[in-house]
Specification:
heterodimer, A: about 110 residues, mainly alpha, elongated, B: alpha+beta
Chain lengths: ~110, ~180
């Protein structure tokens, strides 16, 4: 199955996946780039233009929303209920893939 | 040597990578991009710096502040903007502004769509003109006006065609590096 667009069929690209993970707790938009880098231990980085585009998409799809702006007028994002459902679905999809991979990895390991 | 230097704006559809690299080369020589208009770029004499440059195309409304704040946090300094085109500079180890294939490809969508409309509009125009000319075959007093519309259509068609082709080539080049 071809890799669809980020939010088609509710399959998330790696970038979007990590961004949603970092949104598990309320977070300022600008803090997401650092958070993704931390969670992924440097494996995944998000550039500002990509982040901006993806945040807009996630808002349009109603996976995330803005909290009432606080006194400093800094934008804080949170997952919506729909967003949580989608994220859990994708986490489990990836877990499933990894379990299948682990089985093969064992087998491939024995071959050598 | 004066304080300012100018470079012609050749239109970013064709020139983006070249001009961004040029800005880096010039920054190394101590010429730093300061501002830009539709016609040209203005650079100011300063101490030489190692800088990389990026351009993003985004029409911004209420989210201006957030947009620039993200770039700022990402290490990209906003230099100037005109008509939805924004220029940024950063030190060479900075994370690229686009790190994700899909959002990168979307960058050019609004411009491509606009120029595609230009093609359709001018082709329809030319078609109408051709038809009109046929109907008024022997009535040459309209020739001048018909020619005027013809010239305008060609003036719209040519850049629309060129820009659309340039962007389509750009996208093709990217998607050839596709993942499986």
């Amino acid at each position: 199955m071809a890799r669809g667009k980020a939010l088609d069929d509710e399959i998330l690209t790696d970038s979007t996946y990590y961004i949603l993970l970092s949104l598990a707790k309320p977070i300022h938009g600008y803090a997401i780039m650092q958070k993704v880098q931390d969670i992924s231990q440097g494996e995944v980085v998000i550039g500002p233009a990509s982040l901006y585009t993806i945040l807009k998409k996630l808002q349009d799809a109603n996976y995330i929303e803005l909290l009432e702006e606080d006194k400093e007028r800094r934008k804080t994002y949170i997952l919506t209920f729909k967003g949580k459902v989608i994220l859990k679905k994708d986490i489990n999809r990836r877990i499933f893939m990894v379990e299948r991979g682990k089985e093969v990895l064992e087998f491939l390991g024995e071959e050598n | 040597m004066g304080k300012y230097k100018h470079l012609w704006n050749m239109g970013l559809a064709f020139d983006e990578e070249r001009i961004l690299n040029k800005f880096s080369d010039l920054a190394r020589e101590g010429w730093i991009l300061k501002s830009t208009t539709w016609l040209r770029y203005k650079l100011e004499k300063a101490a030489p710096q190692e800088l990389i440059y990026s351009m993003d195309y985004k029409v911004l409304k209420e989210d201006k502040e957030e947009y620039f704040e993200l770039f700022n946090k990402g290490g990209w300094n906003h230099i100037c903007s005109y008509g939805g085109i924004h220029f940024f500079s950063a030190s060479s180890e900075s994370v690229p502004i686009y790190t994700d294939e899909e959002s990168y490809l979307e960058k050019y969508e609004p411009v491509r769509a606009l120029y595609s409309k230009g093609i359709i509009f001018s082709l329809l125009s030319l078609g109408t003109i051709g038809l009109t000319k046929l109907l008024l075959r022997d009535n040459s007093k309209w020739d001048f006006i018909i020619f005027l519309f013809f010239a305008i259509s060609i003036m719209v068609l040519t850049p629309s065609l060129m820009v659309t082709i340039a962007y389509n080539l750009k996208l093709k080049k990217r998607s050839n590096k596709k993942s499986f």
